[in-house]
Write the structure tokens for this entry.
Amino acid sequence: MTLDINEIQKILPHRPPFLLVDRIIELEPQKRIVGLKNVTINEPFFVGHFPSFPVMPGVLIIEALAQTGGVLILREEPDCSSKMVLFATIEDAKFRRPVVPGDQIRLEVEVVTRKTTFCRMKGRAFVDGQLAAEAVMMCKIVEKTP
């Protein structure tokens, strides 16, 4: 199953420039998901991180993994447009190689455990088959409030 950016935006509340997943290319409901993020020099964070050597901030790679996991979790929720997923914890985050303009990040996320509104996921980000970052994330599903 694939989802394009329009379908992703029906599930996630994030919008550019903070929507960090462009396409879903694999999805096993309630188990695993694979998304893609195309990294371009036009990303607003490259203006200051770093002007002479643009590198995607590691925290945004983790955010891209979390958003990909959010698609997996929220897609199965009734009335997902009224809900969102928030970080509860980030554990064992490791950064293995820089992500730079022109890279395409493959975002692989699998559910480790799921209990009602809490979900623990393991995420790994790859560029050209090389591990760029990984983390274990705990998230909570919450109602959006105005």
About this structure: The first strand starts at residue 23 and ends at 28.
